[in-house]
Amino acid sequence: MLPTQxxxxxxxxxxxxxxxxxxxxxxxxxxxxxxxxxxGPAQLPVYLFGxxxxxxxxxxxxxxxxxxxxxLTSQLLALDDFRQYSPRLFDGxxxxxxxxxxxxxxxxxxxxxxxxxxxxYNRMVEQGKKLIIVADEAPTQLGISLPDLVSRxxxxxxxxxxxxxxxxxxxxxxxxxxxRGIELPDEVARYLxxxxxxxxxxxxxxxxxxxxxxxxxxxxxxxxxxxxVLSETGD
Length: 235
Fold this sequence. Notes:
Blueprint: H1 28-36, E1 46-49, H2 56-69, E2 74-78, E3 98-102, H3 111-126, E4 130-135, H4 147-155, E5 157-160, H5 166-179, H6 186-195, H7 200-217, H8 223-233
Parallel strand pairs: 1-4, 1-5, 2-3, 3-4
Helix pairs in contact: 5-6, 5-7, 7-8
């Protein structure tokens, strides 16, 4: 049994693509990942790090979506609950074109998993396959005790992702609303940010509820309508 496993046509968020990443046109990470997934000479893996909410998981999902569009096989694994599984989970993953690993900081205190990740890294590189790794800190700050693994992670092409300002989060939420075919006025977006927690995933979940309610009632998103919907859903 695998940990959180994303089957492309079913579980990957359909609005989390490379192009929909906030500031995609000027983001070095987006531009590099787009190029990294193209056919060409083998390259070292990619390492993304940053605080929760900086968009790391978005880029992992987006990389898998991009791989699918290019006809590549891929697998995304989140290691949050790694203790429920054996390190042999990584066996054979080098047969895939792309492997994405989320939250590797979770295995920092487990020597067996560190060795398994070190071995997977080497196999992926030897086979010329693509590997994208995500963590919340730079390699030397993870608390990993296997020096060779730290060295491998440091050799990756690394990008540190920054947290968005509240203003940028509001713009991103409005962008996601437009992708759903609804208009989220500035005053409604500000109301949501002032009333709700500023975690983007939680706000996007609320946006989905508002989208459905808007279609059912044939109403635009106004503050009174949003208040009614949120009171009904308990948000």
